[in-house]
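Figure 3 (text version): structure tokens given as input.
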């Protein structure tokens, strides 16, 4: 059964590295992606992958319970490197096919020593204690653990993929020259094993197994399965962009023909004929509408910590009891409130028109006035008698707001998403 991108409870793909679409395909037997057969994982003939996964899961659950019990006695502020590695990190990697990893002092590149003490073939493995963060710098240590591994990958031509873990989280990194944002695949081990999310463990085992990092040709780290999957994802993304371009072209044609060909839009056709409205201006406005729709479609699928980006529930809405149907929206003084709790001051701006202001006077509306008169309003006017008795008016108000987004709201959302990526 196909899983949605947000169906991975404990897995996070950042920066497009091994995107969710590819991860879902790895779990689909019908996809038959290269490198997903039992023999590709080093299993003996006759061994079943599902049985191996179940046995590994049961063993790791025991290791996790012992590690968590021992970690309770770790003093505050202590990194716990030895405890975490001996009780959990190294047993986990053994279950993932890495075997016994010898300890070494690290590597030196251009005069700088990188204290990454484990390595499997061309894959650096940086293991730290559960008392340390992957993203925070520790006093006396140069750089944070994630940044240290990423810098090594970027500066060394012999390394392409790496692992960094602190016992609670494990990340898969790749050589990347991007300076604006990180790129990694993260597994929240704490949530995975405490919550016993076996489905995500299956993906952890399939993606982080040692055979995924091992080059198929000696001395060529780019000949590993992870790299082949990454190229496959990039090709899929290129095809998706091509499909998007064709879809935008069809949408422009459909919208343009609908506007110009509508029987009530005689003035619009006259404006195009006499040059009052240039074709380039109309094309620009159509593009604007299409890309606003694309932005909405993408934003509606985005969540932050399980909360919808486009339709977040405010803290007051969560804690306040539901408003009874038909109840008036009144202030303490008995007057009607002028601002809906769903709308902020920045959202009250009206969206810009489809047709430039110079053509407003001659362009007829897309919807005939006769249809407008025959269509009842979605929400009764607050100026009319009887609005307080309207059933479900609050739900209707929410539905109406969701159906009509203003330009200010879109700009606000775009700024929030950009600032999120920067951070």
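Below: residues designed for each position.
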């Amino acid at each position: 059964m196909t899983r949605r991108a947000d169906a991975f409870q404990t897995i996070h793909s950042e920066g497009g590295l091994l995107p969710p679409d590819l991860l879902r395909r790895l779990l689909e037997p019908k996809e038959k992606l290269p490198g997903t057969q039992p023999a590709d994982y080093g299993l003996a003939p006759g061994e079943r992958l599902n049985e191996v996964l179940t046995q590994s899961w049961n063993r790791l659950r025991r290791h996790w319970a012992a590690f968590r019990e021992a970690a309770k006695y770790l003093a505050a502020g202590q990194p716990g490197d030895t405890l975490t590695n001996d009780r959990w990190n190294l047993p986990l990697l053994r279950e993932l096919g890495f075997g016994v990893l010898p300890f070494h002092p690290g590597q030196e590149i251009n005069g700088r020593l990188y204290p990454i003490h484990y390595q499997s073939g061309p894959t650096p493995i940086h293991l730290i204690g559960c008392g340390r963060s992957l993203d925070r710098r520790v006093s006396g240590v140069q750089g944070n653990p994630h940044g240290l591994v990423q810098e090594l990958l970027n500066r060394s031509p012999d390394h392409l993929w790496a692992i960094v873990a602190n016992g609670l989280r494990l990340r898969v990194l790749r050589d990347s020259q991007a300076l604006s944002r990180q790129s990694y695949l993260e597994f929240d081990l704490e949530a995975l094993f405490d919550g016993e999310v076996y489905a995500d463990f299956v993906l952890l085992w399939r993606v982080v197994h040692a055979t995924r990092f091992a080059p198929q040709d000696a001395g060529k780290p780019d000949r590993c399965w992870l790299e082949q999957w990454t190229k496959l994802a990039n090709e899929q993304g290129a095809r998706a962009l091509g499909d998007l371009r064709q879809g935008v072209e069809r949408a422009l044609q459909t919208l343009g023909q609908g506007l110009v060909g509508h029987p009530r839009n005689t003035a619009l056709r006259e404006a195009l004929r006499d040059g009052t409205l240039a074709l380039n201006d109309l094309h620009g406005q159509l593009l604007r509408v299409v890309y606003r729709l694309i932005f909405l479609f993408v934003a509606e699928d985005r969540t932050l910590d399980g909360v919808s980006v486009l339709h977040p529930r405010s803290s007051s809405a969560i804690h306040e009891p539901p408003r009874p149907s038909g109840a008036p929206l009144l202030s303490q003084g008995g007057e009607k409130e002028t601002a809906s709790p769903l709308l902020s001051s920045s959202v009250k701006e009206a969206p810009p028109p489809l047709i430039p202001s110079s053509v407003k006077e001659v362009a007829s509306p897309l919807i005939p006035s006769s249809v407008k008169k025959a269509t009842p309003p979605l929400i009764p006017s607050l100026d009319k008698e009887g609005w307080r008795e309207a059933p479900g008016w609050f739900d209707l108000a929410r539905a109406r707001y969701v159906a009509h987004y203003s330009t200010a709201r879109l700009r606000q959302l775009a700024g929030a998403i950009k600032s999120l990526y920067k951070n």
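The two ends are 35 Å apart (CA to CA).
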